[in-house]
User: Fold these one by one.
Assistant:
Number 1:
Amino acid sequence: MKYLAICEDDLLFQFMRKVATRRGEVLFLVQRPEVARRIRRHGGSSQWGDLEKEETYQKSHLEQVNQVILFIRGLELRSRVYLLLRSLKPELPILSLSSEKETTGDRKDPFLRHIPLEDIFQEFCAPQLLDTFNRQKVERIRSLFREKDKIHILLQHDPDPDAIGSALALRELLGRNRPTTPLVTFGQVTRPENVAMIRLLDIQIDRISYDDLHRDGARLALVDVQPPYFGASLGKVDLVVDHHPKRIPFSARFTDLRPHYGATSTIFTEYLRATGMEPSQRLATALLYGIKSDTLFLDRGSHIADLEAFTFLYLFANRAMITRMERPELPRQDLEALGRALSRLQLDDGVAVIHMGEVQREDVIPQMAEFCLQIEGVEWGVASGLCGDRVVISVRNVGYVKSAGDIMKRLFDEIGSAGGHRAMAKAVIPVERFKEHFGEVSEKVIREAMVPLITQREEESGND
């Protein structure tokens, strides 16, 4: 998120640098050079110029700004600056801080919000700071589809709770039902916790083919996944909302990517809150479980927005049902695979490496990588296995500042699909391409490829 705070002095900076700057990058635009210098001396980003001239905002790169915070005490100047901003960027979300009696701009402007000065502290500490920004996103999403359109919400091959919860929220935001807006996948739900989730919450996910994706003019929305993941053209994509980094360019009519968020469910929770929609117990449970599972209960790769979304959903969700989802029955064949893998555990410099050989279910591999982190002295868990004609490698680590995604991309992106976040990552490589590059598929090969690179990154981090 990029904010432009337009103000007369550094009072707003003194407050925002400890609160609102956690949400994104803030540039303070002031009238006098001495004020700009004072903000910079205290670690802020600032520019100065005539607030009533267009060139001032060109220098501030207004086209890259997500939201403006307008803090000008004089009503006349504040109104002129507002009108200038509207002429330069008509749908720019603007948050105007003023007294209750002195409001700025058109009261019908959907992207303008007023906050009384006496409520500034309360409002800056609350998620409502982003409401105008998220309302703008929701209005754009709704404008993509006509009432008569059928919409396919496409999920990854083995949908997880974050994807499922997000898909349910999208359907709710659009005011749709299961027949007109089905949740679809090219694969199927296999992980035991996720199977329990769709059973307990009565969620239907249909298996679909590429040929059926746009049948009868159906529109296409993707959540918690991006088009390049599928490795083949999806045709026209209307919507992509995701929290994963954008690795490969793609085209869609609307895109909202927030890689600094820990879960896509957090984005959709913000959408719901911004539009004043109170989630049902079923929807809140799905979204809460999505955030909890993707962030390991807010312990991995989470953002302040994830915490705020979790807190909001907690009051509406069925926590007992989430407990039942998290403790599903584990098939005997999976227990046997885990047991065989543990007997071959290798530990080098805090890195646990396990190759499971052939597995029936791909989800067993990340389960093993997660389990490795519970072993004393382990800071990285690397688990791999053969699933059909693919080599699947899953990586987990205990620290947010580590670089699992970068390492996987560097090693495997040229021969397969690889990437992820700092604390968790995955690679999927065709067996033949893996053998061409490394000679064979084995625990020894994977360990020798990964451990030196992980150790090198750890040493570099320690020297920073």
Number 2:
Amino acid sequence: MTKALINKLAILADAAKYDASCASSGTSKRDSLGTSGIGSTEGMGICHAYAPDGRCISLLKVLLTNFCIFDCRYCINRSSSNVERARFTPAELIKLTLDFYKRNYIEGLFLSSGIIRSPDYTMEQMVEVARALREDHGFRGYIHLKTIAEADPMLIEKAGLYADRLSVNIELPTQAGLSSFAPEKSEQTIRKTMSDVKIRIDEDKDNQRKRKIKPTNNAPRFAPGGQSTQMIVGADGSSDADIITQSSSLYTGFKMRRVYYSAYSPIPDASKDLPPSPPPLMREHRLYQADWLFRFYDFKTPEILSATHDGMLDLDIDPKLSWALAHREWFPVDVNRAPKHVLLRVPGLGTTGVSRILSARRMTRLGLDDLAKLTTSVKKCLPFIEARDWTPGHLTDLANLRARYAPEPEQLCLI
């Protein structure tokens, strides 16, 4: 690898760290055994590595370029930003991906880009990278393309035929925020592109079902890993309620695979224009927890919002516990008799723990010792459950119950 290429990689890999929406799950099983191609999407040759916040780090995550004609105020790569710029040619990026894969550094490619010349020109360059990897080099590993909403729909169609997953960033929770911080972008355009991708994915699934009946139907797969999006948290004045409501609409309206939240860190020369915000990483963490409640715990959006204060999630305790404290009429629940959807609302019980409880209670009445073997958070559950040898009594209704879970106050540094 030449020194010039290393310098480009250092700049463009660092610039890509703000793109959160990469995870290589959910695509179709594909490998190159018995073919002339290379790579696979899963199997013992693939090592999935994740950062503590859930971001996938086993992909080559890079920008085609950090030059950009747009001037989004929250973006470090905006046109008015004084950052070092670089640009890969498609050939350089293809070689880099193949070399890294052959050395077992990565399992695939996550490719995004600033906008150069025009959205169409930039999208053409990105599609060419994916096309050449698939068709010219037989690459069968994972590819995730960050789609440019303003690009021609035909280019997005081509992107979906080469990529495992597409993502179109919603950017900010509200149109007002988008108009203020990214005036070149339109929520209507973004949602139209998301809708087009969803329709095309649904059509592909229909074609796959037909293939089981008609083997001669060889329709190509379109983004088998679905689509995802990213929302920036803390750049504008949107509340957590705004963010949760927007996320819910994305999941229901576009069958979004994932909504990723990216905590905004103010850029020094723009921070004076931005409203004060809660600690960004903790706020991001709480939003991910709320996201899981309606994805895996059967919570409805109004229920999550009912546990917010002035539209903001509690930063000291998780959203599920916050909801339970605000709705104590649900508790205590008998772990030996309560249905699944009720057990899922007990603080400290996750989906795995609930499944184990449902299975184990068919054989015996469960006590606290049994629960300790089935879940790791029995202490957190105590005010909210009944078991064979436990009833919480007045504990459920304690006025200071929240204080048992919230972290102790810390002395602020006076220096």
